[in-house]
Automatic annotation (TrEMBL):
GO molecular function: hydrolase activity, acting on carbon-nitrogen (but not peptide) bonds, in linear amidines; metal ion binding; N-carbamoyl-L-amino-acid hydrolase activity
Matching Pfam families: M20_dimer, OHCU_decarbox, Peptidase_M20
Keywords: Hydrolase, Manganese, Metal-binding, Purine metabolism
Catalytic activity, EC: 3.5.1.87
Source organism (scientific name): Sphaerotilus montanus
InterPro entries named among the record's database cross-references: Amidase_Cbmase, Bact_exopeptidase_dim_dom, OHCU_decarboxylase, OHCU_decarboxylase-1, OHCU_decarboxylase_sf, Peptidase_M20, Peptidase_M20_dimer
Protein name, entry field: N-carbamoyl-L-amino-acid hydrolase
Cross-referenced NCBIfam families: hydantase, UHCUDC
Length: 594
């Protein structure tokens, strides 16, 4: 018989610990301390309480917890002294069937890892879907993490321990993340479409209107139809649009969605999560035969990343009437114009058809978007969901300091006009200045010394600046200070400065009412509400120009890495994300039914 939250809440402290036996390897103290945090409102609430206990315990108990876990394919497996839970997990991953060469390699990795960090390598071998990683994936992860720092690996081991506990709890409670599995499987299937030159290497690349891109659009269209959308189609710029009518088809709609194109050699969830999660919600509504008092429109935006053509946010921009006519004549790396690419995809490629996509804001309640965080904050905090307060405003510059080339051996330090050290000083100032703000970031992503030589004081140094902040005012202050400092550096170091603005994007603060709905949706899962800004650009920042918007972030695995094949999500987090979105829909249902 499966465990229930009510049983746990009613149990004596000793019974509570017994019921959770085996959740954390040889560490009953975690359950003992969590018992005092009752009552729990949900399984997610319980999981967070257990995580909170471990986080508050301090380094010594945390280290003991890590060391309580067996090595992968280690001595305990060979001697068959693993716990039942670990035996099951390592067996499902195929570690009990290693070839002699694989076993020897794992033994060496175990020894090297322990020697470097002083604790065993911990990996949730059941993986993000719970079905089990294969031996190749396990070994590849082991090899990659062996090159980390002790601080990072200590935290990563604990995160994997919590994932192991999460899977074990799911089995104790007989709770299957049905919607999370569905979305995870959809993302996996969609990632089967990739462009030549990348697909052969197992890399995911889907750029605007390529064959892989068009295959993704067709797949999304088919899934939307299966989910029960009333209207499904591909519009004049390649957006996949699904509409689920309200009880009154003429009622205003809630708009949502994200993009399905990718960067080159990217991840499976950036953008796509924000299409698939609301699709799962429509599927649930359709299966229940339910209609809401408002319409629900889900858009898979065809382009956001600006990879094939320099036309970032083309998909969402078209919905607010922002399509630059000059884009049609842009050429890709092979000389194919956007107009020709559109025509090859069966799109009309006319400004009239594209202009017709503009949405009337009066017909919409607002725009919401779910997205992976694309950063480490939620992962560091062991939180599945976070509420976005604002999409950062940004400004980008290309700059160059110009000094005088001179002999590196004969030019005294106080007589130099060194362009490279001027740039270095500016980079360090930008780092310090952004760090002084809450939420600001500054990046010097490109540095070049043209025609540099090992024995010549650099005459020129070219650089880029990417400056972002949660509000326009904060961004403007950051820009002003860095520009002023660059001028002071140029004057003091006797070099010339050229600084060219290449892009400015306004911040997109979340609409208060929509942010509050996301907050309520997170609380309803039994989770604390954590607020954070988004440092990345999103389709929501375009729709923000037309209607109120707010975003929900979901944690990414592997320290939140994104735009990278290591981008990862779990089925359990995704389940919570679908439930949070469904809760937001129910809030709107109650508001409009009152």
């Amino acid at each position: 018989m499966s465990l229930t939250i009510d049983q746990l809440n009613a149990a004596t402290p000793d019974a509570f610990v017994a019921l959770l036996d085996g959740t954390y390897e040889h560490s009953p103290w975690i359950a003992e301390r969590a018992a005092a945090l009752r009552p729990f409102t949900s399984l997610a609430h319980l999981k967070h309480a257990l995580v909170t206990v471990v986080r508050a315990a301090g380094e010594a108990p945390q280290l003991a917890l890590i060391r309580a876990h067996p090595e992968l394919a280690g001595k305990a497996m060979v001697s068959k002294t693993l716990t039942a839970e670990s035996t099951n997990e390592q067996g499902k991953a195929g570690l009990t069937d290693c070839t002699p060469a694989e076993f020897a390699h794992l033994q060496q990795l175990n020894a090297d890892y322990n020697a470097k960090f002083g604790f065993p390598f911990i990996l949730a071998v059941r993986g993000p879907r719970g079905l089990g990683l294969n031996r190749h994936q396990i070994i590849a992860t082991f090899e990659r993490r062996l090159h980390g720092t002790r601080e990072f690996e200590f935290a990563e081991c604990l995160r994997n321990i919590h994932r192991i506990a999460e899977i074990r709890l799911g089995e104790k409670f007989a709770e299957v993340p049905v919607q999370g599995n569905l979305v995870w499987d959809w993302a996996e299937a969609l990632a089967a479409h990739s462009e030549p030159g990348y697909a052969e290497r197992g890399e995911l690349t889907v750029t605007y209107l390529t064959d892989a891109h068009r295959a993704c659009a067709q797949q999304l269209q088919a899934w939307m139809t299966e989910c029960g959308f009333d209207e499904v189609g591909i519009d004049a710029v390649g957006n996949v649009v699904g509409v689920y009518h309200g009880s009154d088809p003429a009622a205003p709609r809630l708009l949502t969605g994200s993009h399905y194109d990718t960067v080159r050699n990217g991840g499976k969830y950036d953008g796509r999560l924000g299409i698939l999660v609301p699709m799962a919600c429509v599927r649930q509504l359709h299966q229940a035969g339910r209609r809401l008092p408002f319409g629900f429109e889900v858009v898979g935006f065809a382009e956001e990343e600006g990879q094939r053509y320099k036309a970032t946010f083309l998909g969402s921009g078209a919905l607010i009437g922002q399509f630059n006519p000059a884009w049609l004549d842009q050429q890709d790396a092979d000389g194919v114009t956007m107009r020709a690419a559109m025509q090859a995809a069966g799109l009309p490629a006319t400004l009239e058809a594209i202009a017709a996509l503009r949405r009337d804001p009066a017909r919409y309640l607002g725009f919401v978007e779910v997205h992976i965080e694309q950063g480490p904050v939620l992962d560091d905090l062991d939180l599945p969901l976070g509420v976005v307060t604002s999409i950062n405003g940004s400004a980008r510059y290309l700059g160059e300091f110009t000094g005088v080339a001179s002999h590196a051996g004969t030019t005294p330090m106080n007589r130099r006009r060194d362009a490279a050290t001027a740039t270095a000083e500016l980079a360090l100032y930008a780092e310090a200045r952004a760090s002084a703000d809450e939420g600001s970031v500054a990046t010097v992503g490109m540095l070049a010394v043209p025609q540099g030589s090992v024995n010549v004081v650099p005459a020129r140094c070219q650089f880029s600046l990417d400056l972002r902040a949660p509000t326009n005012a904060q961004r403007n202050a950051l820009v002003a200070d860095i520009k002023h400092q660059s001028e002071r550096i140029a004057e003091r170091r006797r070099v010339q400065l050229r600084l060219e603005e290449t892009m400015v994007a306004s911040a997109a603060p979340s609409a208060a009412a929509w942010q509050a709905r996301w907050e309520a949706a997170v609380r309803a899962q039994g989770l604390p509400v954590f607020h954070l800004p988004s440092g990345a650009g999103h389709d929501a920042m375009k729709l923000h120009e037309h209607m109120p918007q707010a975003m929900l972030f979901m944690r990414g695995g592997n320290a939140g890495i994104s735009h990278n094949p290591l981008e990862s999500i779990s089925n359990d987090d995704t389940e919570l994300c679908v439930r949070a979105f469904a809760h937001l829909l129910e809030q709107l249902n109650q508001e409009h039914s009152a």
